[in-house]
Specification:
Layout (H helix, E strand, L loop, with lengths): L9 H22 L3 H25 L5 E2 L2 E2 H18 L20
Antiparallel strand pairs: 1-2
Length: 108
């Protein structure tokens, strides 16, 4: 069963979405990249923000709280997810220029 904070209000959710979007935008400004990377950073930052908030609330760790949001853990979660997401997004597909072996052109 997923644990949900029943005290979370719409303004608190809106503040969380805005702050995590600001974190993603600042990270994108720092690291650079395309519009696709900005979208990835935004999604990853949102996920990390709410994951950090939920983990902090669940474990009872609270610092820098703003209303019902555990901003310290949420910010920490967002940053961790952003750095891991950026690291995972570095995957590059390398094109192999060697010919495909066939009957006419056997491998050497």
């Amino acid at each position: 069963m997923i644990w949900v904070d029943s005290a979370m209000t719409f303004p608190a959710i809106l503040i969380g979405v805005v702050l995590s979007t600001i974190y993603a935008s600042a990270f994108h400004f720092w690291k650079g990249g395309s519009l696709g990377k900005l979208l990835i950073y935004g999604i990853v930052s949102w996920l990390g923000f709410w994951f950090g908030h939920l983990v902090g609330s669940r474990l009872g760790w609270s610092f820098w709280s703003i209303g019902p949001i555990n901003m310290g853990m949420a910010t920490f979660g967002s940053l961790i997810f952003l750095f891991v997401g950026e690291w995972l997004s570095r995957v590059e597909v390398r094109k192999n220029n060697s010919p495909v072996p066939n009957k006419k052109n056997p491998p050497r």
